[in-house]
């Protein structure tokens, strides 16, 4: 086997929340949030070090403000193909909010598409017909060795920050700030408002993926910061099973549109290796949670007769979260990048 053929036996896919990637002199969210040139260089060096060490073939990014800077950084690191479909919102001159998602690839991208919610389905969900994703998901069709065209989606679902503040609701409802019980209830409602948006985004995106899948039959890779646990009620629509539809269309019909957690696919094939708890990808105070995921279509399920590749390895890069060194990690990220290694079936 030639060196080139050997290199194509495996493919690596990573999801990477960059945590406020913005080049100075621009600021994120507040005029005080501006990196010095040294801090910005540290951040770029940290990202480059990860990429150079693990060499993913395709990387989905979240929290991108400076898209041109990221494109240049990745191009220099050996990723000539780049996809972005949105621009961050400028709140006030040099202050930015609403970062975007992006994708970088070593292999050609044949098509780039901005995912927009279907207004008819949004209305059926009780949403306004002009409902939009918090961050517009990217769909990039990457032509991968041995697999051919593959639809790679990058998402960053709505955070748990409420759609409104407690203070806004208190004023609207005529509730005094000193009314503690009412304030607690308002705060719970604010959090639920974010959950409604997050769950709606997941349902609307799965519909778009299914539509595209029906039209092309391309393999699907969905990656990103989900801002919730995958099997929570809010996000379960991404991986849910409807036994009524299976009874109608059959198991194979369901499998064609199913998405599965890459970690679980890895665990099924490597049970003895994964006997330890799944590493968290984000920590709030001391509480860890898995918020970053890579989901795969049935072409990556070894139990499916349509399987083209399987998850050989799953890696969570969390050293900077568990054992940070200031000189190395002070301007890294608050998430752990996750990466899977796919072994192509020959």
UniProtKB/TrEMBL annotation:
<dbReference type="InterPro" id="IPR005135">
    <property type="entry name" value="Endo/exonuclease/phosphatase"/>
</dbReference>
<feature type="domain" description="Endonuclease/exonuclease/phosphatase">
    <location>
        <begin position="47"/>
        <end position="309"/>
    </location>
</feature>
<keyword id="KW-0378">Hydrolase</keyword>
<dbReference type="InterPro" id="IPR036691">
    <property type="entry name" value="Endo/exonu/phosph_ase_sf"/>
</dbReference>
<dbReference type="InterPro" id="IPR051916">
    <property type="entry name" value="GPI-anchor_lipid_remodeler"/>
</dbReference>
<dbReference type="Pfam" id="PF03372">
    <property type="entry name" value="Exo_endo_phos"/>
</dbReference>
<protein>
    <submittedName>
        <fullName>Endonuclease</fullName>
    </submittedName>
</protein>
<keyword id="KW-0540">Nuclease</keyword>
<keyword id="KW-0255">Endonuclease</keyword>
<dbReference type="GO" id="GO:0004519">
    <property type="term" value="F:endonuclease activity"/>
</dbReference>
């Amino acid at each position: 086997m030639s060196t080139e053929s050997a290199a194509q036996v495996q493919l690596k896919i990573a999801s990477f929340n960059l945590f406020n990637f913005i080049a100075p002199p621009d600021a994120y969210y507040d005029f005080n949030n501006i990196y010095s040139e040294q801090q910005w260089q540290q951040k770029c060096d940290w990202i480059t070090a990860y990429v150079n060490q693990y060499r993913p073939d395709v990387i989905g990014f979240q929290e991108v403000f400076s898209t041109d800077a990221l494109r240049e950084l990745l191009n220099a690191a050996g990723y000539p193909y780049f996809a972005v479909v949105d621009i961050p919102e400028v709140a006030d001159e040099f202050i930015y909010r609403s970062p975007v998602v992006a994708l970088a690839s070593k292999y050609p991208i044949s098509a780039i598409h901005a995912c927009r919610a279907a207004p008819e389905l949004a209305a059926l969900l009780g949403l306004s017909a002009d409902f939009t994703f918090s961050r517009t998901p990217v769909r990039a069709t990457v032509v991968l060795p041995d697999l051919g065209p593959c639809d790679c989606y990058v998402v960053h679902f709505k955070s748990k920050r409420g759609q409104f503040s407690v203070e806004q609701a208190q004023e609207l409802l005529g509730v005094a700030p000193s009314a503690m019980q009412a304030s607690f209830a308002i705060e719970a409602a604010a959090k639920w408002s974010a959950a409604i948006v997050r769950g709606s985004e997941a349902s609307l995106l799965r519909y778009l993926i299914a539509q595209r899948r029906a039209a092309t039959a391309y393999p699907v890779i969905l990656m990103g910061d989900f801002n919730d646990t995958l099997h929570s009620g809010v996000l379960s629509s991404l991986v849910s099973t409807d036994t009524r539809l299976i009874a109608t269309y059959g198991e194979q019909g369901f499998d064609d549109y199913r998405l599965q957690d890459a970690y679980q696919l890895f665990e099924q094939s490597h049970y003895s290796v994964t006997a330890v708890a799944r590493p968290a990808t984000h920590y709030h105070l001391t509480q860890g949670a898995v918020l970053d995921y890579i989901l795969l279509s049935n072409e990556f399920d070894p139990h499916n007769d349509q399987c083209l590749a399987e998850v050989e390895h799953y890696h969570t890069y969390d050293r900077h979260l568990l054992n940070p060194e200031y000189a190395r990690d002070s301007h890294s990220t608050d998430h752990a990048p996750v990466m899977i290694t796919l072994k192509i079936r020959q």
